[in-house]
Design goal:
The complex is a heterotrimer of chains A (229), B (46) and C (224).
Chain A lengths: L3 H28 L13 H28 L2 H33 L7 H22 L3 H32 L15 H42 L1
Helix pairs in contact in A: 1-6, 2-3, 2-5, 2-6, 3-4, 3-6, 4-5
Chain B lengths: L2 H43 L1
Chain C lengths: L1 H19 L1 H20 L7 H30 L2 H7 L4 H30 L8 H27 L4 H12 L1 H16 L7 H25 L3
Helix pairs in contact in C: 1-5, 2-3, 2-5, 3-5, 3-6, 3-7, 3-8, 5-6, 5-9, 6-7, 6-8, 6-9, 8-9
Classes of the chains: A mainly alpha (229), B mainly alpha (46), C mainly alpha (224).
């Protein structure tokens, strides 16, 4: 299992994340100014967008970890790849649920095929597919290899997906736009929420990767025990 | 539903999703610890 | 020399198919099924159905293409042919190119038949649109099979290969589907074809990026 030092680090990180979440809530609700057109509804933004950015970071981690696994063949890279994909999917789930909740009162529809929301959906599907590949390969070595290749395909695909959807939307424009603008007064709250989400992501990825590491070691132990028995 | 209700729903959704993930992590860690304990007793008996 | 090896792999899959015609029959029939189902589904918009044709076409193409991809690797698995194939001292990328070529040819043949049937079922006439349609069909198909061949090999490693392939392939080929449908719509329903440059560029980039990636990584996904 984890050694003493690592355990303490993760405990401290966990506490920092918990405190950070409280701070983030405070910033989003009490410090950030009320937006002119949408009112308080806009405050969803402070969790919706950081979740998206952090999810993208997680997927970037997944890409790097997958490449490193193919190069170095060390199991901890595979564990990191799995962990970052899982956490990324979770974060994008937050994006996909909060998006419609924001859209309904703002545009009177649950779903808008806006570039950001549509791309988020496809990206979410890509990494769910990654998790599916992992789920259905039985042999651990091959599982790591197959999913690493798929991870590279998915990551290379992501920008092309984004461009395609954006161009498609330009062909069929709709009045429902994403709100992008951030007034300077909103930046402190946004920055803090973003930082807290990044910390949260790192904490969750570490914990999930550690779990996977132990799982892997245990399976190896079981297999060598069966072989010697 | 007024604006505040939607805002509330969104934040509840964030918490619920996070909570589900944290809970599933915790459950998996506990299952792993149980398995390690079982393995240890099995080896001690041998 | 490498071209000869690619041709050999391609020829093998082609010959197997010509002898049994299993894949092509299934692909064509599935395409027909999709067309008929869409005709029922789109009854409510019968008057403006020409607008829906691009989407219907590419859904039919994608499903038929997935069937074909499945078969290309399923056949190997069933008779342990893959072991034999891997014993030949040939670069794994060459195997990829050969299989991709076979998948492309099968898919293009299916597309041709499905397209003709679509003209019949939906009462369309096309004349000057044909060369542009052929171009879009070809580029789109190559993009589809470029990544499809790699992912079919990945799926062949799993317990649920036929079910898994569409699940992992369709999200990845979203750019092809979006751009191919748009391009087909532009050709069929508008007069200004200059806009075609954009979707064709994206599809070509997609095809180049993914055939390169697949060529490089194919050895990692072939089963031992």
């Amino acid at each position: 299992m984890k050694d003493r030092g690592e355990g303490t680090f993760d405990a401290v990180l966990g506490a920092a994340v918990a405190a950070g979440m409280v701070l983030a809530l405070y910033m989003a609700f009490l410090v950030a100014p009320r937006e002119r057109t949408m009112g308080d509804l806009q405050r969803i933004f402070y969790f919706h967008v950081p979740a998206g950015i952090t999810g993208l970071t997680a997927f970037a981690f997944n890409f790097v970890a997958s490449v490193m696994f193919l190069v170095r063949r060390k199991h901890r890279w595979d564990a990191l790849a799995l962990a970052s994909a899982e956490v990324g999917v979770m974060l994008f789930s937050i994006v996909l649920v909060t998006g419609p909740i924001w859209a309904k009162p703002a545009w009177f529809v649950w779903w808008t095929w806006s570039p950001r929301l549509t791309s988020s959906l496809v990206l979410w599907m890509l990494y769910v597919a990654y998790l599916l590949v992992r789920n259905y390969v039985s042999d651990p070595e091959r599982r790591a290899q197959m999913s690493a290749v798929f991870a590279i395909v998915a990551f290379a695909d992501a920008p092309i997906v984004w461009f395609s959807i954006r161009w498609w939307r330009d062909q069929h424009p709709s009045p429902m736009l994403e709100t992008g603008g951030l007034s300077p007064a909103m930046w402190p709250a946004f920055a803090i929420c973003w930082a807290v989400f990044q910390l949260l992501m790192i904490y969750l990825v570490r914990r999930r990767a550690a779990l996977e590491g132990v799982r892997h070691d245990l399976d190896e132990l079981m297999r060598s025990a069966e072989r010697s028995a | 539903m007024n604006t505040m209700a939607y805002l509330f729903a969104a934040y509840v959704a964030v918490w619920v999703i996070l909570a589900i993930y944290l809970f599933s992590l915790h459950a998996r860690e506990r299952k792993l610890r149980d398995e390690v304990r079982r393995l240890r007793t099995m080896l001690e008996r041998r | 020399m490498m071209l000869g090896k690619i041709w050999a792999v391609f020829r093998k899959d082609l010959l197997i198919e010509l002898r049994t015609k299993d894949s092509l029959n299934a692909m064509l029939f599935f395409g027909v099924v999709v067309l008929v189902v869409f005709n029922f589904a789109l009854e409510a918009v019968r008057d403006s159905i020409r607008a829906a044709v691009p989407g219907v076409l590419w859904v039919a193409f994608a499903f038929a293409g997935t069937l074909g991809l499945n078969r290309i690797f399923a056949a190997e698995k069933d008779n342990n042919c893959l072991q034999g194939l891997l014993m030949i001292p040939v670069d794994r990328g060459v195997i990829y190119l050969g299989k991709m070529l076979a998948a492309t040819v099968f898919m293009l043949v299916s597309e041709g038949v499905i397209f003709v049937l679509t003209l019949v079922f939906f009462n369309l006439t096309v004349w000057r649109e044909v060369p542009y349609l052929v171009l879009v069909f070809c580029v789109g198909t190559v993009g589809f099979t470029a990544v499809g061949t790699l992912l079919a090999a990945v799926a062949a490693n799993t317990r649920m290969r036929e079910v898994l392939l569409p699940l992992i392939l369709f999200p990845v080929v979203v750019p092809i589907l979006i751009n191919a449908v748009e391009a087909t719509a532009i050709i069929l329903n508008t007069v200004d074809y200059r806009v075609l440059r954009q979707p064709l560029t994206i599809m070509t980039v997609f095809a180049i990026v993914f055939s390169t990636l697949s060529y490089l990584f194919f050895e990692y996904v072939l089963e031992e």
